[in-house]
Design brief:
The chain is mostly helical. It is 60% helix and 2% strand.
């Protein structure tokens, strides 16, 4: 007769975890569930009860990561330099876009301030992913484990929140050391109508370029201000992007086998080892057709945002800043090497962005501007139904010619009575692995 206690989680990802915890056995070899739950509760000390991500833990880890790498408080000199760059950037952009000035204020942020001030948007982006992963973990329980599901499921949810919090905190802490502005990854992370630079990261970006600090700061301010004008001037864009992330999350399929393998190596007496084992790719979702379609929508919209910014800044600097060509190339190389946007989405929500789509989008916006002028290019942002699709990125000249037909459309034909609703974007087919052509 086996000495192994009955395991109600047998055959599930939680079997190994139960076996580890069942070392706290009572009389007759029967697991002492009170002792087991006491051990788990100790591991979950400080967790945010019932929430998919422990954001207090995430913020704490992010700030500690930033502090360990080195951070300083901003000075009035930092603020003045950023303000000067933003004022000049606004002036230059007036000739490059019809979208109006919106940066009423500018700010110089430390890395810790970036973590603190962008956390609300990260919650909106990451929570849907974490919520679906938590649900998948709960659904893995078999019927015979239901008698234990109440207390154990709640604890596992807390565990997931802590693991996600640690993973997000580490990712944001590392990202805070790289981003040069509030819009560096394409999403509108900062306050509306404020242009923000991180002076220490701007200086890090400038290392080895052989350019003046003023040129680098101004160029990055131009990109930040262009982003701010776009998000302020296109009311549907912010929600459109966040909805694409939520759509992606709703199709998540969790690799429960990965959970089981991670659980097998867990020492319940070692919370740090548990966190490390679970965070090592446990929450990397598997692709589904729904996710692929949502990824295409998100990838295409982000590419169009960044491509538009590239084109606007190129036009604003072409007769004024000789260093802009070198700086634009530096930005492109940074993307191709897996810059902040690619790293962040891959780590936090499992999304892989393709740098070549950004170049394709910049070429498309340039082609539209050449064919229709600055106003004709910017008018396409009036409604998502007018926006280029993924297939249009493969044929920028063809789209630019077609865009001329759109210039005579009355935009009120597209508007709905519910102005706070985000219209559905046109459907696109998923791309192949290299991100250059639609999937066959």
């Amino acid at each position: 007769m086996s000495d192994e206690p009955d395991n109600p989680f047998k055959g599930t990802p939680f079997e190994a975890m139960f076996q580890q915890f069942s070392g706290a056995a009572g009389a007759g070899g029967t697991p002492d569930l009170n002792a087991i739950f006491a051990q788990v509760q100790q591991l979950l000390s400080g967790s945010a009860d019932g929430k998919p991500v422990n954001w207090d833990l995430a913020k704490d880890i992010a700030r500690k990561t930033v502090s360990a790498a080195g951070d300083r408080s901003m000075t009035s000199t930092d603020s003045d330099r950023v303000a000067d760059a933003v004022r000049l950037a606004e002036h230059w952009l007036d000739d490059a876009t019809t979208l109006p000035e919106v940066s009423a204020t500018s700010q110089a942020w430390s890395r810790a301030e970036w973590v603190e001030n962008t956390l609300p948007v990260w919650q909106t982006v990451v929570d849907p992913v974490a919520e679906h992963v938590a649900g998948a973990m709960g659904n893995a329980l078999p019927a015979e484990a239901q008698q234990f599901a109440g207390p154990m499921a709640g604890m596992l949810r807390q565990l997931g929140g802590s693991v996600f919090g640690a993973q997000v905190g580490q990712g944001l802490g590392e990202l805070a050391g790289e981003v040069v502005s509030s819009s560096d990854i394409g999403l509108p992370l900062g306050p509306t109508g404020q242009a923000i630079l991180l002076p220490d990261n701007v200086a890090k970006f400038a290392e080895g370029l052989g350019l003046t600090d003023e040129d680098v700061r101004l160029y990055l301010a131009l990109r930040e201000v262009a982003h701010q004008r776009l998000y302020a001037g296109v009311p549907w864009l912010r929600q459109h992007l966040l909805a694409a992330v939520a759509d992606y999350a709703s199709g998540i399929e969790v690799d429960t086998g990965k959970i089981e393998r991670a659980m097998a190596d867990i020492d319940p007496q070692n919370p740090e080892a548990m966190q490390e084992a679970l965070a090592g790719g446990l929450f990397e979702p598997e692709d589904s057709e729904q996710q692929k379609a949502a990824l295409v929508r998100l990838e295409t919209t982000l590419a169009l945002v960044e491509g538009w910014v590239d084109d606007v800044v190129r036009e604003a600097t072409k007769d004024r800043m000789p260093a802009a060509i070198q700086l634009a190339e530096t930005v492109r190389r940074r993307r191709a090497a897996g810059g902040p946007a690619e790293q962040t989405f891959a780590t936090l929500v499992g999304l892989q962005l393709r740098p070549r789509r950004l170049r394709d989008a910049a070429n498309l916006w340039a082609a539209v501007r050449d064919a229709r002028g600055v106003e004709g290019r910017d008018t396409l942002w009036s409604h998502p139904d007018l926006m280029p699709s993924t297939s249009d990125l493969d044929d920028p000249i063809g789209f630019a010619q077609h865009a001329g037909e759109l210039s005579n459309i009355d935009i009120t034909d597209f508007l709905t009575d519910e102005t706070d609703e985000t219209p559905e974007p046109p459907a696109d087919k998923p791309q192949d692995d290299d991100g250059d052509n639609p999937a066959k």
